[in-house]
Design goal:
By secondary structure, the chain is α/β, with parallel strands linked by helices. The protein contains 19 helices and 17 strands. Strands 7, 8, 9, 10, 11 and 12 form a six-stranded mixed β-sheet that branches. Strands 2-1-3-14-6 form a five-stranded mixed β-sheet, with helices on both faces. Strand 15 (about 390) and strand 16 form a beta hairpin. The N and C termini lie far apart (about 65 Å). About 40% of the residues are buried.
């Protein structure tokens, strides 16, 4: 057989295995007389040390009559696999999913409502346990599905973590500058910082080479949707109308946020812009190499820097505020497929996964994001972790020691703590039916707007984003036989 035909045959077999695999797993489970729970996650191979060794095998040890069929999937194809199985009337019993996929999965009937399980007198969650999840996340998870009646908002998943965006800073750069400028030192970042403080200190710490190009950047970050969404929210912006069919991204707060980025880039010349011309040296590598004073990134980057740049002297602070405090964040959820054939046992495992002990195990092992448990963020157990070693003895995830807690993890409580000025937690999760499409258009716009040769206005750039997103929404509505949305012209 020709090689190309062999490849095609291999792909066909792999595809059929992916689509039919959940059914095969259950057949095997029935044959050996044990109940089988299909448990799906995604992640890096080393994360099996948590999801397989401590979660899947841990649940089997507690329940000898149950076999956990553990499968780690590829992240980029996760939703496609879940959709393929659902189309076949199958699905994972306990499934890890992204909060950005949650609304669509509920709309397509892929997730089982959890409310009856939560209120079950024997297997449910008491009110104090339910109240321990971050309220801003739980508010997003309580929704009315198309099959539900009016006013019947329900929960279809529970959160595992709450990844957050923070302000990383190189303490050695600050210290060196302050030694040379003792009369006007650069203040270290704090929860009280504003846009003005960020701009002022970034300018102070930027240095240039002989050709006038940035050598050490005052500020840098990956140019994707989260930084812009952060500044947009801090400028007082809202992303969507209540029905989720009209984006407000091109209103005045969006213009202010976009102009702020260009001010950092062009007027202050403190923001290093890395767009499509990177040659293997991204903002994270430059920060790790000591060539950036202030760097914006997510909580997952902390153990990465510790493992790969152990000599880097850095700390993390909450994001600065604009007209209001705001911290963009995300969440990973646990849910049950609506096609599960053993939903009661699936719920028992899900309830165990979101319990404090397993939530703390997630932080203790991977430390990519704080667990979605408010009480754990202030507990003594949260202040240290054991870490995770590679086979050669080096650290895959370095341990968190008490002496490093304030610098590396103390900032994580800020997003979930009610702010004294607003009474609400600054953390927010950008989720909407067309949020993925909006963020994709934002990233395309940033690549052109922040190009040094661009003369486009912020208003025009954001109008393009809104027009593209609205075209997608109206196209989808037309395909369903629904009319286009009538949107006001004025902003």
């Amino acid at each position: 057989m020709r090689p190309s035909r062999l490849i095609i045959l291999a792909i066909l077999i792999a595809t059929l295995a992916v689509v039919l695999w959940p059914a095969a797993s259950r057949v095997m489970g029935r044959a050996n007389g044990r109940s089988t729970l299909l448990f799906t996650v995604w992640g890096m191979p080393f994360e099996d040390r948590l999801f397989l060794d401590r979660y899947a095998k841990g649940w089997e040890r507690l329940n000898p009559s149950i076999t956990v069929d553990y499968q780690r999937l590829v992240g980029d194809g996760l939703l496609a696999k879940y959709n393929a199985w659902a189309a076949q009337g199958r699905g994972a019993d306990v499934m890890r999913l992204r909060i950005t996929d949650y609304l669509g999965m509920v709309e397509r009937g892929m997730l089982e409502p959890l409310d009856d399980f939560i209120s079950d007198p024997d297997l449910g969650l008491p009110p104090d346990e339910l109240a321990d999840f971050p309220p801003q996340i739980m508010q997003l998870l309580r929704i009315v599905a198309p099959s539900d009646g009016p006013g019947s908002a329900r929960l279809y998943a529970l959160p595992q973590d709450n990844a957050q965006y923070g302000l990383f800073y190189n303490r050695a750069i600050f210290a060196a500058y302050n030694r040379d400028h003792s009369d006007s030192p650069a203040p270290y970042p704090s929860p009280d910082w504003t846009w003005h403080d960020l701009r002022r200190v970034a300018k102070m710490l930027t240095t240039y080479d002989d050709r006038g190009r940035i050598d050490t950047a005052g500020i840098d970050f990956f140019m994707w949707s989260w930084p812009f969404l952060t500044f947009h929210a801090q400028a007082g912006g809202e992303l969507w109308t209540a029905d989720g069919l009209t984006t407000l991204i091109n209103h005045e707060p969006g213009v202010r946020a976009l102009e702020f980025l260009r001010t950092l880039q062009r007027e202050d010349r403190s923001l290093r812009i890395s767009l499509g011309d990177q040659t293997g040296t991204g903002p994270d590598a430059l920060f790790a190499a000591g060539r950036t004073a202030i760097y914006l990134d997510g909580s997952w980057r902390v153990p990465n820097f510790e493992a790969n740049a152990p000599s880097l002297d850095f700390a993390v602070a909450p994001l600065p505020r604009g007209v209001r405090p705001a911290v963009v964040s995300g969440s990973v959820l646990w849910g049950i497929s609506s096609h599960s054939r053993n939903k009661r046992e699936a719920w028992r495992m899900l309830r165990w996964l979101v319990a404090k002990e397993q939530s703390l195990e997630y932080w203790d092992t991977l430390r990519v994001a704080p667990p979605a448990r408010m009480s754990l963020l202030t507990s003594d157990a949260f202040r240290t972790t054991r870490g995770l070693r590679r086979a050669d003895g080096s650290w895959e995830v370095p341990p968190l020691t008490p002496g490093r807690f304030e610098a590396r993890a103390g900032w994580l409580a800020y997003a979930n703590t009610p702010h004294p000025e607003t009474g609400r937690p600054p953390g927010f999760v950008p989720v909407a039916p067309y949020q993925t499409e909006l963020e994709r258009e934002i990233e395309r716009m940033l690549s052109s707007y922040l190009n040094p040769s661009s003369t486009e206005s912020a208003q025009s750039a954001l109008d393009r984003v809104a027009a593209a997103v609205h075209a997608i929404i109206d196209r989808d509505r037309a395909a369903k036989g629904l009319p286009a949305v009538v949107r006001p012209v004025s902003r």
